[in-house]
Write a structure and sequence with these properties.
The protein is an alpha/beta fold. Helix content is about 45%, strand content about 15%. It contains 9 helices and 9 strands.
């Protein structure tokens, strides 16, 4: 079976985006503890510096706007020089918008797509020459259960994640032919600042649930990376949703219709970086 080789992460070198909070921050810690040297990036430099101070031999902060093409190029150049090469690319930066579509601005929807879709694929393009020459190289994308089956009020986020899932499926055979594994983590509700911001009076009642911790989520992603698993779905709730979406999608739609009255009449934008 493809993608089943075991990867020894100790000594590998990589780039991790979205490292200032949530799953990205948990991933930085988990990978550093396994001996991975990482250039960690995000907009909030103080948080990056604070995180890097916990693992000074493994984490190197480099702050900037991941949607900026020039910053992406500088990030790859800096990481290559600092680490001596790139074996891993993990794109954990993301953004989400919640609210009725008819009240959504084009600007907000574009921003969600810039962060959740275009930035990851642009960074893969810029990193690929280094990855091809890396040691058991791999790319890890952060997807969402809403990319498999969307829900109301999440139109921009669901569409961006669906596009990302489609991209991953199309590009995986291409990159595997170069020796680069492509993995995607399909997340359900996860405890992080990203969801905390959405929950504060903005997230619809029917979408509430007990979120999986960022640490458990990161552990599942790292385990999948070590085992070469192409798709990781952390937590039983996310797995259940994916199964329902695949075999009984009408049940999800009926539940949404039943809870339609709880759909909020307002919109929020949350970003983790």
């Amino acid at each position: 079976m493809l993608f089943t080789k075991v990867r020894n992460l100790s000594g590998q070198r990589g780039i991790l985006t979205g490292a200032t909070s949530g799953v990205g921050r948990a991933l930085a810690r988990s990978l550093a503890e396994r001996g991975v040297r990482l250039v960690i990036t995000g907009r909030r430099n103080a948080r990056l510096v604070d995180l890097a101070s916990e693992y000074p031999d493994f984490l190197v902060p480099f702050s900037g706007d991941i949607t900026d093409s020039l910053f992406q190029e500088e990030l790859v150049r800096y990481s290559t020089a600092e680490l001596g090469g790139i074996d891993l690319l993990i794109t954990a930066a993301g953004a989400g918008a919640v609210g009725p579509f008819f009240k959504s601005s084009t600007e907000t929807m574009r921003k969600v797509f810039e962060i959740d879709f275009f930035s990851p694929i642009q960074l893969v393009q810029k990193t690929l020459p280094q990855l091809i020459n890396g040691r058991t190289p791999a790319v890890v994308f952060i997807g969402s259960i809403l990319g498999n089956h969307p829900l109301p009020l999440h139109s921009a986020y669901a569409a961006a994640k669906a596009a990302l899932h489609g991209f991953v499926g199309a590009v995986r055979p291409e990159l595997v032919s170069y020796g680069v594994d492509v993995n995607v983590a399909v997340l359900g509700p996860t405890q992080s600042e990203f969801w905390d911001n959405l929950i504060s009076g903005e997230r619809a009642d029917w979408s509430q649930g007990r979120p999986l911790s960022a640490e458990i989520t990161a552990a599942a992603i790292v385990s999948g990376l070590e085992r070469g698993v192409p798709v990781v779905i952390p937590g039983w709730r996310a797995k259940s949703y994916i199964l329902l979406a695949r075999f009984f999608p009408s049940l999800i739609d009926r539940f949404v219709c039943w809870k339609r009255r709880s759909i909020a009449e307002h919109q929020s934008f949350a970003e983790h970086e």
